[in-house]
Amino acid sequence: MFCQDGRKQPCPAGKYAASTGSTTCVNCPAGKYAASTGSTTCVNCPAGKYATSLRCLNCPSGIHVASTGPTTCVNCPAGKYAASTGSRTCVNCPADTYTNATGMSSCINCPHGLTSQPGASTCCTRGKYSNMTTRLCMCTICH
């Protein structure tokens, strides 16, 4: 509640009264929201969601948020994916599949005759592997 013209008024959704007797309502800080009228505090969104001043929204598939209180979602890196909205983590693509771009919601099957390790960003001919540390798109002969 804030005071205006000597009367107590509830702050609108997305804003809060910073202290008792405030004369103004304050926007929620980035990463927090106040969903209802009359809020006295703003709260963090849970992991997998990001905040506007009014509500928490699910991150789209292919994107994730691991922490609470974010203002944006993060693309999954190549070799990983997030299949559903509101994902908290990205998952390695299984063996014999890959993603070669960021922000993917599913993995691509390796073409016939090629293979990959879990979390790969490229497929290789059998007997070769891609460098999982650098994620470079080149295949090296197994020793």
Short synopsis of the structure:
This protein is mainly β and 143 residues long. The chain is built from no helices and 18 strands.
Quaternary: single chain
Mean pLDDT: 81
The number of helical elements comes to 0
* Overall tally of domains: 2
Number of strands: 18
What is Rg? 23 Å
How would a crystallographer describe the biggest sheet? 2 strands, antiparallel
Structural class: mainly beta
Model regions low in confidence, pLDDT < 50 over at least 5 residues: none
Provide the β-strand percentage band.
25-35%
- What CATH architecture of the largest domain would you give? Ribbon
Give descriptors for this structure.
Tumor Necrosis Factor Receptor, subunit A, domain 2, mainly beta, 0% helix, 143 residues, two-stranded antiparallel sheet
Q: Would you mind describing this structure in some detail?
A:
- The protein contains no helices and 18 strands.
- With 143 residues, it is mostly beta strands.
- The protein folds into 2 domains: 44 residues, Tumor Necrosis Factor Receptor, subunit A, domain 2 (Ribbon); 84 residues, Tumor Necrosis Factor Receptor, subunit A, domain 2, CATH 2.10.50.
- The strands form 9 sheets. The chain has a two-stranded antiparallel ribbon. Strands 3-4 form a two-stranded antiparallel sheet.
- The chain is rod-shaped.
- The mean pLDDT is 81.
Describe the SSE topology.
Blueprint lengths: L1 E3 L2 E3 L5 E2 L9 E2 L4 E2 L9 E2 L4 E3 L4 E3 L4 E2 L9 E2 L4 E2 L9 E2 L4 E2 L9 E2 L4 E2 L8 E2 L2 E3 L8 E3 L2
